[in-house]
Amino acid sequence: MKRAFDDPKASGSGPSKPTKKLRQSQSKSNNKASIASSETPWPDHFTSLFKVFKAINTVLAFVSSRKQIATTFPVIRASVEGLLKHPLEISRVAELKALLPDLIKFTYIDKNELLINEKILNRSTRRDNSPEFSLPASSYDDADGHVLILEFVDHLKGKKTRNSGFQYTAPPTLTPAAMKKLVEKRNQQFEQAVNELLLATPETENAIDLIQEASREHIPVSPNCPPKKEDKTFPSPDNRLPMDDIIEEVKEQEWYIDQIVHRRTFDAKNGQIAQLDPSLSEAISEALKSSREITTFYTHQVAAIQAIHREKHVIVSTSTASGKSIIYQVPILQFLERDSSAKAMLVYPTKALAQDQKAALEQLIGACAGLSHIKVATYDGDTPQELRADIRSNCSVIFTNFDMIHASILPNEHVWRTFLKNLKLLAVDELHCYSGLFGSHVSYITRRLRRACTAIGNRRLRFISCTATISNPRQHMQTIFGLEPSEIEVVSEDGAPSGRKDFLVWNPPLVLPEDPRSSRVSSLSEATQLMRFLMKRGVRVILFCKIRKICELAMKTIITELGNEGRHDILERVKPYRGGYSREDRRRIEHEAFSGNLLGIIATNALELGVDIGILDAVIMLGFPMSIASFRQQAGRAGRRAQDSLAVLVADPFPIDTYYVDNPTELFEQVPHHLIVDLDNKMTLESHLQCAAHEMPISLEDKAYFGPLMAEICESRLKRYADGWYHTHPKFLPFPSRFISIRGAQEETYTVIKMSKSGQGEFIIEEIEISRAMFEIYEGGVFMHQGLTYVVKEVNHDRNFAKVFQAEVNYITSPRDFTDVDAKQTLRIRDFTASRAFYGKIDLYVKVFGFFKIRSWPTYSLSSILLTFLICFCRNKAIIDSVDLDTPPWECETTGFWIDVPKALLALMYTKGINPAEAIHSAQHALLNQFALSEDVKTECKAPEKEYRVTESSRKRPARLIFYDAIGKGGGVSAKAFDIVHELLQKASAAIDRCECERGCTNCTQSTMCREANEVGSKLGASIVLKGLLGHELDPDAIPLQEQTVSLPQTIVEASAVRRANDVRIENVTQNAST
Ligand SMILES: [Zn+2]
Ligand SMILES: [Zn+2]
């Protein structure tokens, strides 16, 4: 059939280049209209391409009937994807362009050409609510004012358009009937072009390959890409402009729309210098000078070093980069100088940090006359067994961690005896890292260490710690090391010089500036835009993201945007950094950062305390970090001595961020929460007593270390020998330390394996904890790693791995899950007359039943989507596909407590128009906000996607406040909250009454830990629930009727009773006795 009609080979017209061939086919269309109804069957590829074409055709027809809508590619793409229900790849459009090069215009044009449309757009009074028809800022919109457009150029009556190049022509105005005709005509043109292509394709070639090859030439390139050579430079970070000038420059940008809602400047401060008395030895002074160029000391360094000299324990609470390492290093050198058998241990929260510090100390010791023989070593879980004995006997200083002290050094005290006997100094950096349950474990480990040292005659062990600025440094030091307040010297006067520092609170602008109800531009695109702007000016930036996925999305955005701008020079100096990356990857990135080679780092708070990433000039925080303390810690990462720096908080669209946008001074004035370490947890104490007794038997005098609860536990849980000493209970032998996991239970992990395209070679790119894996790896899902997208091909739940392949996709995926927290068995009951609280076993049930494909670029509030998952996307119609999955549920058991909301209270809420799901969710957070150890307790968060669904769901949740011990944290903490549940309810209720906020804030009903970003909430509802549970009088007439815009189906049902274990006593709260 083909041959019979027109054999291009035979006629000699067969082009060698596909592009030419296609052009030729196209040009034939005018005189060979009759072949439109070809009998050649179409390959599926063209059938599906036709669908894409028809969708674009429809959208463009619609758009051209509304003159106010610009046919920019992002606008067209959104609508086309809405019709197609799957993503529209640029390459597909390029294929169409290759097929119909004269009809389709797909190119960058000068933005000014669009101005006419924009003006009309701004004038129009009646706005279409659909965000599809706004003009989104995007990666198809370059810095130099070009936008990517997609439109049809019809050659009416055979007239050739003169319109080549980048000129934009307004689409013709047509009647609906004429438009319909035009649409049909274009569809015919497509069919004809395909038929011709198929006919023209030689048998030796494949039409699909041809079109795809040809399409590559039609992928649009911004006229500024690659930019002129001279643009491709940026100032060296050492020669950048002052930050003040850069901020002024930001304000001159066209994308600057008053985003800076608050600015606070802290002036530069000169360093305060003091003299050491007694002064240092010649050798140490020389070593500091030659290896570090240090000849003078700041006041805080002097205060700390002298306090150690006076045999005090020291805590230094000053800013980041105030020269804290000198405070550990100088006393170590002094000890070694006085006594070459002296030993020291240094503990850092991360291995990377320990490595950096070890190198620095080795260098210093090496430069110190008379000490160059001294050996320094790392002693951690990675230290090979065969090296350990040598380290014990020959090294003077070891870099280690509490895990090793707990599980390796103390249990083997007999081989460490010489070391411990000569141990002069234990330095613990970043002491604020040790709080909550982990802090309790560490506190007992230091007590065990002190006890062991004392027993072998070492009573002069000193402790020295540095910490970020915290509200209770003395008390924290006292708790962690078990010291008397009078033995501790607190150094908090910071003598280090600091550069001028600017803080900005950045609120993304409204999508529709004239409509205050419209949503805000994505915080993620604002943050990455600002980051690019700063890097181009030679500013070294770190962008902090709250969760891993945002970190990856930000990296992907930066890659795309810098790529589009042709700024590969900057791109190659930006790296993401977060938990989950392989060890090698992390070390490599740390190395690059430390060597000063990086210009930008996108990190989760894994970097907040950990690695010293060298010099940074600016910090951008994408969303308010978990707490005021984190905010200050992150902000403190930028800046060094003489140079000015910048910290920017880019607000997410969440209530907490909004609160700080409205009350920015609180960011600087609010007192951070006290660090809490709980030493009254009998379970934790017992486990360490079992260890301590194995290290050496316990006598009642050890109460000095372990506190008043010790005696009772020893008596009931340890084994008492005839001589009166307590020994480890035999069931924990021979290794009691193995019964404790000080960082919580190690979770099972899934391995993510990258498959190569060729099918040869696979390698591991990540290990993911099971509780996270459920939401991150599912078949068909998009997994992000170092800013690249991978599609999950296979998940093996028996062998815990997932295989992924790299694929450039323009969507991300968001899992759809039910996470049910169900009370399973009651073990304790506390009765407080008006209601009861129950403690017991709780089942967690996570079922990922599908996922949404979500268009990933850019206008929409990506971060809000990811955190609140779906609601924003539903609103913005950015969901392009919904996929069902059949994955096995993940179930696990934990402990926790719950309080049922009585029927009458539920009924009252319904009559007052209060949504019980909102009320219960807010009441849960209000209660947890009053509990000091809330970081280890979780609650069932209510998701907007489920609670605000207009269709009835079969999934109903009981009217119940429920709390449980976080997985992988060791547990036992919710029991402590349960012990004081009545008090927590009272405090929560009082906090709400006291708080002047309107709709709830972090002081009353909201939580930075909320999985669903506090979107479902009601301050009034929480107050009613709490008062009702406390038995307070509620006057229905005094409760204002809440107006609801839509009536939603009920998602909350009355809670039913939970099975009780045998002999559950009822603890009566008011009488404080059991009945
Ligand atoms: Zn409040
Ligand atoms: Zn929540």
From TrEMBL:
Residues 24-38 have a biased composition (Low complexity). GO terms for cellular component: nucleus. One of its GO terms (molecular function) is 3'-5' DNA helicase activity. It holds the Pfam family DEAD. Residues 1-39, 219-241 are annotated as: Disordered. Residues 526-704 form the Helicase C-terminal domain. It comes from the Eukaryota. SUPFAM superfamilies: P-loop containing nucleoside triphosphate hydrolases, Winged helix' DNA-binding domain. InterPro entries: CDT1_Gemini-bd-like, DEAD/DEAH_box_helicase_dom, Helicase_ATP-bd, Helicase_C-like, HRQ1_WHD, MZB, P-loop_NTPase, WH_DNA-bd_sf. Keywords: ATP-binding, Helicase, Hydrolase, Nucleotide-binding. SMART domains: CDT1, DEXDc, HELICc. PANTHER family: ATP-DEPENDENT HELICASE HRQ1. This is DEAD/H helicase. It comes from Crucibulum laeve.
